[in-house]
Amino acid sequence: MKNSELYLLFLLALIITGCKDKPKEVESSQEWIEIFNGENLDGWHPKIRGYALDENPWNTFRVVDGAMQVSYDEYEDFDDRFGHIFFKNPYSDYRLKIEYRFIGDQAPGGERWATKNSGIMIHCQSPESMTVDQSFPVSLEVQLLGGFEEGVERPTANLCTPGTHVNMNGEQVTQHCINSNSETFYGEEWIEAEVLVINDSLITHYINGKEVISYSKPVIGGEYNTLENLSGQALTSGWISLQSESHPIEFRNIKLLELKDQP
């Protein structure tokens, strides 16, 4: 093969590789903003099952040493009081970075599956539209998990779909939770989770900078759907929330980069 042909093939390989990495490098004229100030919960709105919006029973969501902490030290029993804390604005096209770590012991009465289990919820229904006794918002969950036993895999940044379905590899997926290909984290170390959200055309989860799962075309429907009149509707935007699911967790350095003008 001639040198000129080899050179053209080399250029083509570079172009293909660049295209593959492009979703991580979406251009933006905006700057990263801190959506949690590390001092208080200004701009955030708790919604806990059994309680009205903005009630924060037993000081579940609090700020400790610059981190947003989800704590259950004032609970006698968890009693299915699943909760979420919503940021004040909805978004459609953005990158979100959060550092998290599981700490301490699970609340009394928490489900076994909820041990070292929490989540970042994206494209959420509005907090005002949740019913008092609703456990989970219609949303896409970046499921955060920690390992129980050294050597037993339990990946993190999985996808769960409360009230939603997504498309993967050209087909609609109705399975409630799909594992990512991340490594397992067993201790109380800080881990960086990132989510790239481009409307309903592409959503990708990253752990410590590594892509671990990707999907597209989320729609309303399926298990935990409280918006049945909207079944089949595309999820193109929504609120961001962090989960309270019975195991203590801390979040810090919560940053958002808008990728284009929001609706």
Which key features would you list for this structure?
263 residues, mainly beta, Jelly Rolls, ten-stranded antiparallel beta sheet, seven-stranded antiparallel beta sheet, 39% strand, globular, disordered N terminus
The number of domains is 1
Provide the CATH architecture: Sandwich
Which geometry do the CA atoms define?
A: globular
pLDDT < 50 stretches: 1-24
**Order of SSEs:** HEEEEEEEEEEEEEEEEE
Number of strands: 17
Structural class category: mainly beta
Biggest pleated-sheet summary? 10 strands, antiparallel
* CATH-derived topology: Jelly Rolls
* Helical percentage: under 10%
Distance between the termini: 53 Å
Describe this structure in words.
Helix content is 7%, strand content 39%. Strands 1, 3, 4, 6, 10, 11, 13, 14, 15 and 17 form a ten-stranded antiparallel β-sheet that branches. It has a seven-stranded antiparallel β-sheet with strand order 2-5-16-7-8-9-12, with no helix packed on it. It contains one helix and 17 strands. With 263 residues, the protein is mainly beta. The protein has a single domain, classed as Sandwich (Jelly Rolls).
